[in-house]
Write a structure and sequence with these properties.
Layout (H helix, E strand, L loop, with lengths): L2 E7 L5 H5 L3 E4 L4 E6 L4 H5 L5 E5 L3 E4 L3 H4 L2 H8 L7 E6 L18 E6 L14 E4 H8 L12 H12 L4 E6 L9 E2 H18 L3 E5 L1 E2 L10 H10 L4 E6 L9 E5 L5 E8 L5 E9 L3 E7 L16 E5 L2 E7 L8 E10 L6 E11 L4 E5 L11 E2 L18 E7 L4 E2 L17 E4 L3 E5 L3 E5 L2 H21 L8 H10 L41 E6 L3 H7 L5 E3 L4 E5 L14 E5 L3 E4 L27 E6 L18 E6 L14 E4 H10 L11 H10 L16 E6 L7 E2 H18 L3 E5 L1 E2 L10 H10 L4 E6 L9 E5 L6 E8 L5 E8 L4 E7 L5 E5 L6 E6 L4 E8 L8 E8 L4 E11 L4 E5 L11 E2 L18 E7 L4 E2 L17 E4 L3 E5 L2 E5 L2 H21 L8 H10 L21 H8 L7 H7 L4
Parallel strand pairs: 6-9, 6-11, 7-9, 11-13, 13-24, 24-26, 34-37, 34-39, 35-37, 39-41, 41-53, 53-55
Antiparallel strand pairs: 1-3, 1-4, 2-3, 5-10, 5-12, 7-8, 14-22, 15-21, 15-23, 16-20, 16-22, 17-21, 18-19, 19-20, 24-25, 27-28, 29-31, 29-32, 30-31, 33-38, 33-40, 35-36, 42-51, 43-50, 43-52, 44-49, 44-51, 45-46, 45-50, 47-48, 48-49, 53-54, 56-57
Helix pairs in contact: 6-9, 7-8, 13-16, 14-15, 17-18
Protein name: Peptidase S8 and S53 subtilisin kexin sedolisin
InterPro entries: CspB_prodomain, Pep_S8_CspA-like, Peptidase_S8/S53_dom, Peptidase_S8/S53_dom_sf, Peptidase_S8_Asp-AS, Peptidase_S8_Ser-AS, Peptidase_S8_subtilisin-like, Peptidase_S8_subtilisin-rel
GO molecular function: serine-type endopeptidase activity
Length: about 1100
C-alpha cells in the first residue's frame, strides 16, 4: 500500500526521490504531494531542511422553480448573459458527458477536458497519475468511439447539470476524484491536484475560472488553517479564479459537540457507537492556552488513565476495543491544538454509549470542539447524545477565500436542517451565502433527470451565477478584476436578507440568499481610479516583465513570484488594468516609526549565563529594517574589534545595486570591519537614531556600559536603511527590506527574526493588506519569525468606530483640522455587504451633496469658500477583503471643523471604522472630534502571522497610555502580549538615550524570540519552530494581572516573561507531528 502526505516546502525536493524512494509531485513553489511506499518514511522526511510542515490528507465525502427563487432567470433575461468565455471546473465523482444537457446544438461537447484520477494511463502534462481526455476524445466518443469514463454515483452529473443550466455557454472541465468504485470519497491531495490542473487549463486557454467543490470533511480545526485550505487560499490568488465550496450536510447529523470548560471542572461527553463500526477517529480541538486531561470510558464502564499533553501516545485495550490517544502542539499556522482518540475493534468496536471525560487543569478560554467523522462514513447510530449544531461546517468550506454555500428550502423559505453552520461567537462567519438545496431537479447518468438534496446542490447555483458575472466583468471587459474576493463580495452584498429576526451575517444563513436579480449591471460603473503617485505594489502571475515592457513600463522591481513594484513614468495608472498578468495593485502605505518621544523585567538576562540553558541569541539573525544603525557604537562590536552586523543595505545611497534590486548600496561584514579597523567612515549613518535604539534593546553587548546589555547580545544583525520620504517610509521599500533580509538568511542558512517597528493607519486592519499577505508568505518558512509593534495610536484620536442600525440612517464624522495641515486623507471601511456613501460639510457650511457609491466611482469636488479640493474614491468592493473602502483626499485643506456625513444606503452588518493618518503625519491640533481607543492596532501588526506587541510601564505595571489596542477590524484579539516600553534606556550614536513607545516593546520581544530560536533550532530542542509555535511559547509564559480577563484587547495574553515561558515548556514532549501521522488513518 502507498501513502500520501501533503508538504509545505522550499527549495528543491527532487533528491528525495533517490534518497527515500518517494514520488514527488510539485503543486506549486510552496506545496507538494509525496507518495511513500512505507509509512515509516514520514519520520525521515522531517530530517530534510526543505520540508517545513507535513499534513496527511483528509477524506472528503459529497454533500448532496430554485432558479426563480435565486433571481437567476430574471437576471439572465435582463442581461442576456450565458457564461460565454468562462470555464466551470467540476471536482466530483465524474460527469456523464453523454447526457444531452452537456451537448451543444452542433453535437459537440460543452466539456472540453476530463481528468479521471481513478484510471491510469494518460496523465495530464505535469502530473503523474490518472487519464486525461481532450475535447477531441470526448467529441469522438459522442460520435460512437468508446471511452471507459462513467459517473457511477451520479453526484457529479447532478452538480454539473445545475451549473451548466445556469451558464449554458460556459465550457466545463471535469476532474473525477476518489478510487474506482469508491467515488463517494476523495482525499484532499486529489482535490489539490485537481485545483492545480483546473488553474493550469484556465491559464492555458486564458479564460476565467470558477471551481465547484461539493465535498467536505469533519477533519481539521475549522479555522481555515489546514494546508489544504491554505492551498485553496493561495491558488485563489492565481489566475482569475473563484472557488465555491459546499458547507456540508452535518448540521443535523449529531457529529459535533461543543464544550465550554472552566477551571476546576469535570465534564463527560457521551456518544453512541452503532453496530458494525470497525474504526472511529474522534478529533478534539482546543486553544493553545487551555490545558485539560481526558479519560475514555467504554460502555462497560472501563476507563483509561487520565491523558494530557504530557502523556505522549497512549495505546490501551478496553475490552475488545483498542484505544489510541494523544495530544499535539499547535500547528505552525493556527493557535488551535488537537487531541485525537482512535477506537479500533478486533472485529468491530464495542457498540453502546462511550464517554470522554474532560478534567480542566488550566483554562484561559475554555472552548472545546469535538468531532466524529462525517455522517457518510458512519452508521446513523454513531453520534453524540447531546450534539451541537453550530460549527458543523465542513473542511474546506472554512477556507477564508473560498465562497462557502449553505442550503435552504426555497419552497418554505427555511434553512435546511442538514446545512453546515458556522459559529458567530467564535468568529467563524460561514457559510458566506445560502442557495436552494432541497429537491433540486438536475441531470442524472444515462440521460435522466431527478431530484437530490444537499449543500452539494446549493453550491452549483452559486457556481453558475459566478460564471455569468465573470462573463460580464472579465470577458465583456466591464470589470477585469471581477473574480476572487471582489466577485465574492458582489454576491454577498446583493444577497437577499428578508428574514426580519435574523441578525446577518448569520451562522446558518450567512449574508443571505443568493439573488442575482438584485445585481443591475447597468448601474455598475466601470471607471477605475487614477492615482497621482507613480509607484505601485502589484500582485501578478506569468511573465510580468515582458507584459509590462510591452506597455512601455521598464522600471520594475521584482519582490518574488507573486509581488513586484512598478514605477510609472508619465503613464496613467489605468494602464495596469489592461495587463492580464496584473491581478491587483495598490499604492504603497506611509509607514512611520512607532516611537513617542527592562531587559531584566522580561527575563532575558536570566539566560545569558544560565548553567543549563545558556542563551544569548548565538547563531540567530535579527533584521532591523528601519532608519539604519550606528555601526561604530561599541555595543555592536565584539571583543576582537569586529562587527556583529552581517550586512547593511542602505536604500538611500547610489552605487552598484545588488543582484535582484534596482537601487541602494550594500555594505558587507568585511567592509564594515575594515572601516572599524581603519577608522575610515562608511557613507552609512542613522539620522533619526530609531534603528540604533532598536538594535541596542534587541542585541546590544554593553560595550560602552555593561548595565545596558540587550536581550540577545550574541545575535547578529541584518540592517536595512529605508528611504525617508519626509517623516515616513513607503511600505514598498519595507517589503524590499524584508526580501533582502530573507535572502541573506536563506543564503547563510540561519533562523531570522524580523523586527518591524514601523506602522501605518492605512490598510484594512484585518491582516489582508498586500504587505501583510507578503509577510504571511515569508512567515510560513521554518525559523522566519516576525515581531511587530502594535502602534501608539490609542490616545491620538485618529480612529472612530460606529454602527448603523438601519438602512437609510445618516451619521456624522467630525474632523477638527488644525493649522498647517495642507493635505488630509480620511479612510472609511464598512463591512461587507454594506453599502455606504458620503456627503461633506465645510467649516463655513458649504455642503457637498451625497456622492452615490458605485463600483470604482471617483469624484472630484471643490469647496469654493475654503478653496479646498477633495477627491472621493469608492472601492466597492475592495479587492482583497470584499469590504467597502471610501478614501477621501483633501488638498489645501483649511483649519476648522469639517464634517464627513455617512449615508447607510444598504445596511446588513452596520459596523464601520474611520481612520486618519498616524498622528506623526498630522498637525498637532488635527484629530477626530469623537474617537475610540479600541481597534487602533496599526498595519502590519494586525496580521495573524506576526507577534503583535503592545507597551506597558514595567515600573508600576500599568499599560502605556498610547499603546494601540485591538481588536482587529475582523474581531481578532490583538496585541498578542505587551512588553516594557516606557522610559527605556538604549543605544544612540555615541552613547545612550531614553525612549518610549511600542517599537521599544517590540524590540524586547524580538530579542526574546532570538533566544527561543537558539534553544529550539540551534540547540535542536525544537527544530520545527514557526510563527504560531513561537507565539504559543511566549503567550503561555506571560504574566497576568489579578482581576483582568485574558486574552483582552489591551494586554493580549499578558506581559512578556521569557523565564516563565521556559518553565511552561519544561516537561512538554518534542514536536509530535510524526507520531500523529503514524497513528492517524491510513491514506
Amino acid at each position: 500500500m502507498s501513502f500520501e502526505v501533503i508538504v509545505k516546502y522550499h527549495s528543491d525536493l527532487t533528491r528525495l526521490e533517490d534518497e527515500l524512494e518517494v514520488e514527488v509531485e510539485i503543486l506549486n513553489e510552496k506545496f507538494a504531494i509525496l507518495t511513500l511506499l512505507d509509512e515509516s518514511i514520514i519520520d525521515r522526511l522531517l530530517e530534510y531542511e526543505q520540508i517545513e510542515y507535513i499534513e496527511r490528507p483528509f477524506i472528503l465525502g459529497p454533500s448532496l422553480t430554485s432558479f426563480q427563487a435565486s433571481g437567476i432567470d430574471l437576471f439572465k433575461v435582463r442581461t442576456d448573459l450565458s457564461g460565454e468565455g468562462v470555464l466551470i471546473g467540476i471536482i466530483d465523482s465524474g460527469v456523464d458527458f453523454r447526457h444531452p444537457l452537456f451537448i451543444n446544438q452542433d453535437g459537440t461537447s460543452k466539456i472540453i477536458r476530463i481528468w479521471d484520477q481513478t484510471r491510469e494511463g494518460n496523465p495530464p502534462e505535469g502530473f503523474k497519475g490518472g487519464y486525461e481526455y481532450t475535447k477531441e476524445d470526448i467529441d469522438n466518443a459522442l460520435k460512437g468511439e468508446e471511452i471507459p469514463f462513467f459517473d457511477n454515483i451520479g453526484h457529479g452529473t447532478h452538480v454539473a447539470g445545475i451549473a451548466s443550466t445556469i451558464a449554458p455557454n460556459a465550457q466545463i472541465v471535469v476532474v473525477k476524484v476518489g478510487v474506482r468504485g469508491l467515488e463517494s470519497f476523495g482525499r484532499s491531495t486529489e482535490f489539490m491536484r485537481a485545483i492545480k490542473y483546473l488553474i493550469d487549463v484556465s491559464t492555458e486557454l486564458n479564460k476565467p475560472l470558477v471551481i465547484n467543490i461539493s465535498y467536505g470533511s469533519n477533519e481539521g480545526p475549522k479555522d481555515g488553517s489546514t494546508l489544504f485550505e491554505q492551498y485553496i487560499d493561495d491558488m485563489s490568488l492565481r489566475g482569475r479564479t473563484l472557488v465555491v465550496v459546499a458547507s456540508g450536510n452535518e448540521g443535523d447529523k449529531s457529529k459535533h459537540r461543543h464544550l465550554r470548560l472552566l477551571n476546576n471542572m469535570v465534564r463527560p461527553v457521551e456518544f453512541s457507537v452503532g453496530s458494525g463500526e470497525d474504526e472511529i477517529t474522534v478529533e478534539i480541538w482546543k486553544k493553545f492556552s487551555d490545558d485539560f486531561s481526558i479519560s475514555i470510558i467504554n460502555p462497560s464502564g472501563v476507563r483509561t488513565q487520565k491523558i494530557d499533553r504530557n502523556s505522549g501516545v497512549v495505546d490501551i485495550n478496553l475490552g475488545n476495543t483498542n484505544v489510541t490517544a494523544f495530544f499535539s502542539s499547535a500547528t505552525p499556522y493556527s493557535l488551535n491544538e488537537r487531541a485525537v482518540v482512535i477506537l479500533r475493534g478486533d472485529n468491530f468496536i464495542q457498540p453502546g454509549i462511550w464517554s470522554i471525560e474532560f478534567e480542566s487543569q488550566n483554562i484561559v478560554e475554555g472552548d472545546v470542539n469535538i468531532y466524529l467523522p462525517i455522517s457518510e462514513r458512519l452508521s446513523p447510530d454513531t453520534k453524540f447524545l447531546d450534539p451541537t449544531v453550530i460549527r458543523t461546517i465542513t473542511t474546506p468550506a472554512t477556507s477564508s477565500r473560498a465562497l462557502s454555500v449553505g442550503s435552504y428550502n426555497h419552497s418554505i423559505n427555511a434553512i435546511s436542517s442538514f446545512s453546515g453552520r458556522g459559529d458567530r461567537r467564535l468568529k467563524v462567519i460561514k457559510p458566506d451565502i445560502v442557495a436552494p438545496g432541497e429537491n433540486i431537479v438536475s441531470s442524472l447518468p444515462f440521460g435522466g433527470f431527478g431530484a437530490l438534496s444537499g449543500t452539494s446542490m446549493a453550491a452549483p447555483h452559486v457556481t453558475g451565477s459566478a460564471a455569468l458575472l465573470m462573463q460580464w466583468g472579465i470577458v465583456d471587459g466591464n470589470d477585469p478584476f471581477l473574480y476572487g474576493q471582489r466577485l465574492k463580495a458582489m454576491l454577498l452584498r446583493e444577497a437577499r436578507r428578508d428574514i426580519g429576526f435574523i441578525n446577518y451575517p448569520d451562522e446558518a444563513w450567512g449574508y443571505g440568499k443568493l439573488d442575482l436579480s438584485r445585481i443591475n449591471t447597468r448601474t455598475l460603473n466601470e471607471t477605475y481610479r487614477k492615482e497621482n503617485t507613480q509607484e505601485f505594489i502589484i500582485m501578478y502571475e506569468g511573465d510580468i516583465i515582458s507584459a509590462l515592457n510591452e506597455k512601455g513600463i521598464d522600471k520594475v522591481q521584482i519582490i518574488d513570484r507573486k509581488y513586484a513594484i512598478v514605477y510609472l513614468d508619465g503613464l496613467d495608472v489605468s494602464i495596469l488594468n489592461t495587463i492580464p498578468e496584473v491581478t491587483y495593485y495598490k499604492r504603497p502605505f506611509r509607514m512611520v516609526p512607532l516611537i513617542d518621544t527592562s531587559v531584566d523585567k522580561v527575563g532575558g538576562t536570566f539566560f545569558h549565563n544560565h548553567p543549563y540553558i545558556p542563551l544569548t541569541g548565538r547563531g540567530i539573525l535579527v533584521a532591523i529594517i528601519d532608519s539604519g544603525i550606528d555601526y561604530t557604537h561599541p555595543d555592536f562590536i565584539y571583543e576582537d574589534g569586529t562587527s556583529k552586523i552581517v550586512s547593511i543595505w542602505d536604500q538611500t545611497l547610489e552605487g552598484n545595486p545588488l543582484d535582484g534590486f534596482i537601487f541602494g548600496k550594500e555594505f558587507t561584514n568585511e567592509q564594515i570591519n575594515e572601516a572599524l579597523f581603519t577608522n575610515e567612515r562608511l557613507d552609512h549613518r542613522d539620522d533619526t537614531w530609531h534603528g540604533t535604539m532598536l538594535a541596542g534593546i534587541i542585541g546590544g553587548r554593553g560595550g560602552l556600559n555593561s548595565n545596558y546589555v540587550g536581550v540577545a547580545p550574541d545575535s547578529e544583525f541584518i540592517v536595512v536603511k529605508l528611504r525617508d520620504q519626509g517623516g515616513y517610509y513607503k511600505s514598498s521599500d519595507l517589503m524590499l527590506g524584508i526580501k533582502y533580509a530573507y535572502e541573506v538568511a536563506r543564503r547563510m542558512r540561519m533562523p531570522l527574526v524580523f523586527n518591524i517597528s514601523l506602522g501605518t493607519n492605512e490598510g484594512s486592519h484585518d491582516g489582508m493588506s498586500i504587505l501583510e499577505n507578503y509577510i504571511y508568505e515569508i512567515s510560513r518558512d521554518r525559523g522566519m519569525i516576525f515581531v511587530a509593534a502594535a502602534g501608539n495610536e490609542a490616545d491620538k484620536m485618529t480612529k472612530l468606530s460606529g454602527i448603523f442600525n438601519n438602512t437609510g440612517e445618516i451619521q456624522d464624522v467630525e474632523i477638527i483640522v488644525g493649522p498647517n495641515q495642507r493635505q488630509l486623507d480620511v479612510m472609511i471601511w464598512a463591512r461587507k455587504p454594506d453599502k455606504v456613501s458620503v456627503s461633506m460639510v465645510s467649516p463655513t457650511g458649504e455642503f457637498v451633496e451625497k456622492i452615490p457609491a458605485k463600483l470604482g466611482e471617483e469624484e472630484f469636488v471643490r469647496f469654493i469658500l475654503e478653496d479646498t479640493s477633495a477627491l472621493v474614491r469608492y472601492r466597492y468592493p475592495e479587492e482583497l477583503t470584499g469590504d467597502t473602502l471610501i478614501e477621501i483626499h483633501f488638498d489645501d485643506i483649511k483649519p476648522g471643523n469639517w464634517i464627513v456625513r455617512l449615508h447607510g444606503d444598504n445596511i446588513v452588518d452596520g459596523r464601520y471604522n474611520v481612520y486618519l493618518p498616524n498622528k506623526s503625519l498630522l498637525s498637532e491640533q488635527t484629530r477626530l472630534l469623537r474617537a475610540d481607543p479600541l481597534g487602533t492596532i496599526v498595519t502590519p501588526a494586525t496580521a495573524e502571522s506576526v507577534i503583535t506587541v503592545g507597551a506597558y510601564n514595567h515600573i508600576d505595571n500599568s499599560l502605556y497610555r498610547a499603546s494601540s489596542r485591538g481588536p482587529t477590524r475582523d474581531d481578532k484579539i490583538k496585541p498578542d502580549l505587551v512588553a516594557p516600553g516606557v522610559n527605556i534606556t538604549s543605544t544612540i550614536p555615541g552613547g545612550y538615550g531614553t525612549f518610549t513607545g511600542t517599537s521599544v516593546a517590540a524590540a524586547h520581544v524580538a530579542g526574546a524570540v532570538a533566544l527561543l530560536l537558539e534553544w529550539g533550532i540551534l540547540n535542536n530542542n525544537d527544530p520545527t519552530m514557526y510563527i504560531q509555535k513561537v507565539k504559543t511559547y511566549l503567550t503561555r509564559g506571560t504574566e497576568r494581572r489579578a482581576g483582568e480577563e485574558y486574552p483582552n484587547v489591551s494586554w493580549g495574553y499578558g506581559t512578556l516573561n521569557l523565564r516563565r515561558a521556559f518553565e511552561q515548556i519544561r516537561g512538554i514532549e518534542a514536536w509530535i507531528y510524526p507520531i500523529e501521522l503514524r497513528k492517524g488513518e491510513d491514506v
